Amino acid sequence: MVDAEGVPWHYGAPLKEQLDLERNTGVVDRSHRRIIQVAGPDAPTFLNTLLSQKLDDVPEGFNAGALDLDIQGRILHHADLSYSEGSFYLDLPAAQADTLANFLRKMVFWSKVEVSEPELALLTLLGGELEVPESLVPVYSRKVDWKGPHRIDLAVPRSELDAAVDKLLAAGAVLSGLMAYTAIRVRAGEPELAVDLDDKSIPHEVPNWIGRHDHPGAVHLEKGCYRGQETVARVENLGRSPRLLVMLQLDGSAPVDPIPGAAVEFEGRRVGKLGTVVHDCDYGPIALALIKRSALDLGTLNVGPVSASVDPDSLPADEGEKAGRAAINKLRGR
């Protein structure tokens, strides 16, 4: 299920809360996420050797995603990352925090690095560009580069969470529940690891996570020396991932919604796995799903008794022939 424990799913009118973001700035309580701090003079090079993002020379205020992969390139952890005043802050779902923090601590060895978990809480501003009041000074803020509306994440001391929300409301923000945020996240093609992916998932299954052009994503394609990079390089240069994360539009006339983890089928044959399911103010029920590439253009799919279709806008742009494949074809005289 979607990670939502301990924060408001909505405030009584979830679809209206999402619709209001078209003309207002919503403040979403995402304090259920945990934040890991990595500090010390060796922190940039330390994290650069472990994670998929290039971090050895980032400037103050750098924001991006980052992945921890296993030796086969499968995703173990995904975090949103910020660099502020000499420290890296990685926020991620609570269920992932202990294993990532333990891994980082085990890898310190002689590096001058300290891994800790400060008492910070995350708030997200969505929609309009609200000016954060001067009285609210976050530990760090992050302007997020994603396919959704204008978004700023603010980390504040957990003890000051309620006061921070009050200051944002006084400045003109409105309360938005996690359901509104989740609908926007699904439309933006941003997965939550536990519900949308599985233990075989590799980075290229999530197109938004691959850094291209000015979009940093969560994977930097021009760095090396991290666990799992061989898989990233091989897929990028020679082929494509066998599956792709896409948005499905679900039949809104069905009496019940399908549940995350259900099989996505075509004519009785399993072609994918359902992830986050949520109701959207414009599309009705929508979902993220990992779908085999061979099934992306088959037409109507089914999740149990519920019909579904791949939203064409969720498909990535064709990157053209891969450089490595082109070189091989040239050697073969094709």
Helix content range of the residues, please? Answer: 10-25%
Radius of gyration: 20 Å
Number of helices: 8
User: What composes the largest sheet?
Assistant: 6 strands, antiparallel
Order of helices and strands: HEEHEEEHEEEEHEHHHEEEEEEH
CATH superfamily grouping of the largest domain = Probable tRNA modification gtpase trme, domain 1
Number of extended strands: 16
- Architecture per CATH nomenclature, i.e. the level-2 architecture of the largest domain: 2-Layer Sandwich
What is the average per-residue confidence, as pLDDT, rounded to a whole number?
93
| Low-confidence region ranges | 323-332
CATH topology of the largest domain: Gyrase A, domain 2
The tally of domains stands at: 2
Beta-sheet strand percentage? 25-35%
Question: What is the CATH top level name of the largest domain?
Answer: Alpha Beta
Major beta sheet, strand line-up = 12-13-14-11-16-15
Query: What is the SS-derived class?
Result: alpha+beta
End-to-end separation: 48 Å
The coarse silhouette is: globular
Protein name: Glycine cleavage system aminomethyltransferase T
GO molecular function: methyltransferase activity
Keywords: Methyltransferase, Transferase, Transit peptide
GO biological process, one term: methylation
